């Protein structure tokens, strides 16, 4: 498996790396004045390079596609078709992705899940199909990529345990 396969699957569902990177940029630009969209794209690809992220993405996309073809057993089929608000499995899977770069990803995911910015909003509005899992997975990937950038912030390295500064 590879980042290329993950990118291809996302692209097939109408999501580009640049669209996810744009969300990352919006989350991090105020903390990193010199941040570029290219750096955000690199961070998204780094997140997609994690095998556990790939597996989660592949599973979520497969479930969305099976629901579109009406191949899921009831009541799961109806739950997916209606994007049942209390379902929560989609958020649970996405939270696994957010945690790969620490707890800061959790707060970013919560913000993105509530605000639904960028391509997340488009997916949530049922763009050409069922995206019960994909909208949350994109938010999780963006949150993790944002967290990765935050952790790599050179200013954060200046803090040390026990320092009075």
Question: Can you characterise this structure?
Answer:
It contains nine helices and no strands. The protein starts with a helix and ends in a 14-residue tail after the last helix. The relative contact order is 0.18. The chain has a single domain, classed as YutG-like (Orthogonal Bundle). Helix 4 packs antiparallel against helix 6 and helix 7 crosses helix 9. By secondary structure, the chain is an all-alpha fold. It holds the Pfam family PgpA. This is Phosphatidylglycerophosphatase A. GO terms for molecular function: phosphatidylglycerophosphatase activity.
Nutshell version of this structure?
This protein is an all-alpha fold and 165 residues long. It has 9 helices and no strands.
CATH superfamily: PgpA-like
Indicate how many domains the architecture comprises.
1
Order of helices and strands: HHHHHHHHH
**Secondary structural class:** mainly alpha
**Could you give the distance between the termini?**
45 Å
* Shape annotation: globular
Q: Number of helical segments?
A: 9
GO molecular function: phosphatidylglycerophosphatase activity
Protein name: Phosphatidylglycerophosphatase A
GO biological process, one term: lipid metabolic process
InterPro entries: PgpA-like_sf (IPR036681), Put_PGPase (IPR026038), YutG/PgpA (IPR007686)
């Amino acid at each position: 498996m590879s980042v290329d396969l993950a990118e291809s699957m996302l692209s097939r569902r109408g999501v580009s790396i640049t669209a996810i990177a744009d969300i990352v940029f919006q989350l991090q630009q105020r903390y990193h004045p010199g941040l570029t969209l290219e750096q955000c794209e690199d961070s998204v690809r780094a997140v997609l390079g994690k095998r556990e992220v790939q597996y989660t993405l592949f599973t979520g996309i497969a479930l969305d596609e099976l629901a579109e073809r009406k191949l899921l057993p009831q009541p799961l089929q109806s739950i997916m078709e209606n994007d049942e608000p209390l379902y929560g499995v989609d958020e649970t899977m996405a939270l696994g992705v957010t945690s790969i770069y620490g707890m800061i990803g959790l707060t970013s995911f919560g913000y993105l899940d509530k605000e639904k910015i960028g391509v997340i909003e488009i997916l949530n509005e049922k763009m050409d199909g069922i995206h019960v899992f994909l909208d949350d997975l994109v938010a999780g990937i963006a949150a993790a990529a944002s967290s990765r950038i935050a952790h790599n912030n050179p200013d954060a390295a200046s803090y040390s345990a026990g320092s009075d500064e």
